[in-house]
Design goal:
By secondary structure, this protein is mainly beta. The protein has one domain: Lipocalin (Beta Barrel). It contains no helices and eight strands. An eight-stranded antiparallel barrel has the order 1-2-3-4-5-6-7-8. Strand 5 and strand 6 form a beta hairpin. The chain is globular and about 40 Å long.
Length: 124
């Protein structure tokens, strides 16, 4: 059970698939990039206009949206990282939990006590 792999994220409000994200692990640290945008009418040359850091102006496809998550000791949970919402430019504290034998991934982004959870589906 690991978040490493390719996932399809689904908008928790509309239920529509938004993107495919590839999560990789290097030296115990997990990061993730947008591989393909699935939103209807998505422009192939779109860039992150709302980003406030080194990602500003970078292409949406290939954009790193997950940074620095690590496995919690003794649990199948990855945390202490950040996740970027490229539409708003906001970064959230990240917690990822593989569920259903690794077929789905609960991705929680939060600022303080406020947050929301999306369930991503593994791409085979």
């Amino acid at each position: 059970m690991t978040p490493v792999g390719t996932w399809r994220n689904v908008d928790d409000k509309t239920g529509e698939a938004k993107a495919e994200i590839r999560i990789t692990e290097t030296a115990g640290v997990v990061n993730g990039n947008i591989v393909k945008r699935l939103v209807k009418g998505a422009k192939a040359d779109a860039v992150c206009e709302e980003c406030n850091d080194d990602r500003k102006g970078k292409p949406m496809e290939g954009l790193e949206i997950i940074r620095g998550a690590k496995k919690a000791a003794g649990k199948d949970v990855w945390e202490d990282g950040k996740i970027l919402d490229p539409e708003s430019g906001r970064e959230y504290t990240l917690r990822m939990t593989p569920i259903e034998g690794g077929k789905r991934l609960e991705v929680r982004g939060a600022i303080g006590p406020f947050g929301r959870t999306q369930t991503w589906v593994r791409v085979q």
